[in-house]
Fold:
Amino acid sequence: MTRPIRATIDLSALRGNLAVARQHAGAARLWAVLKADAYGHGLMRVAGALDDLADGFALLDIEDAIALREAGFRQPILLLEGFFEADELPLLAEYGLTPVVHSLEQVDMLTSAALPARLQVYLKLNTGMNRLGLSAEEFHPGLTALETTHNVSGITLMTHFADADLDRGIDWQMARFEEAVQGCEHPVSLANSAALLRFAATRRGWARPGIMLYGSSPYPQDESAEALGLRAVMTLSSQLISVQELAAGERVGYGGIFTAERPMRIGIVACGYADGYPRHAPVGTPVLVEGRRTRTVGRVSMDMIMVDLEGIPAAGIGSPVVLWGEGLPVDDVATAAGTVGYELLCALAPRVPVTEKE
Ligand SMILES: *Cc1c(COP(=O)(O)O)cnc(C)c1O
Structure:
């Protein structure tokens, strides 16, 4: 018997979540965002499952994009950070990859390259995220350069929202975008998951949903994944590998951050921070044992966590444990740990064996 931790990837949930994105998108086309190894779910696995459903795949690394092409994927592939050096440009042309152009330096590299084929490009406008994108002043010179070079066959205008999941919303960025692009005939790309779900005005051109495809809510404090019609794709599960009976006053784990106030049973789970479970998850983080919701006790260690077995008398060595996924939303665990579902999903460690479920 191997160590019992597993990540199970539910491919029908993934496809169902893409269908939810599609319902919200109206006539907009959908990039499935597959960066960070498809948010920890496996790039090739997710691309295969969404092959006939997504209109294109968006990610970061040219190596990953080339691997998709070599595996036979023919749909558009968008590189969200574009290219880093001019010597990547011939590869982009050869493999038919679409870079985001977010700086005038990239515009210069692109207009002065000698390429075997013309490129589709996304031109990114900074509307207030202040991370990537041309400023309002740079935008028109950059656009004109791309419109007049031989190396570009088509341009889509994009921006990225900083507060689509928050009260501030998108109107302030939309106003800057509309002002900059007025009079331009090019298609646009605006929405991440939060904007696609909340703001009908963004359902144009090409939307870029990521987190919702994986069944996590982009704004779990306001609306759960379930309320949005999304299903968990990754279930991280394991088993109890030991049970301890504590007397009142005994402490648990490194640093003894939890003390039993009365006699109690605790279970030891084969899952720790080296599997991707967040070390900063405090005492009381939710966990399922034998399908019953209970809490962690003590500090998360590299290979184990400890859980309270009060009210679960049937629990013993071999009892099933769900860390997140089916029956326990990853967003609940993330909220308890002071982070977001994105971080937990992306952090799944390579040592965790993955199984697929259709
Ligand atoms: C990651 C990313 C997305 C997807 O965002 P989600 O919140 O996961 O939907 C969309 N656009 C860009 C530019 C991104 O980097």
User: Anything to note?
Assistant: The longest strand covers residues 234-246. The chain has two domains: 11-214, 234-357. The chain is about 25% helix and 25% strand. The longest helix spans residues 11-25.
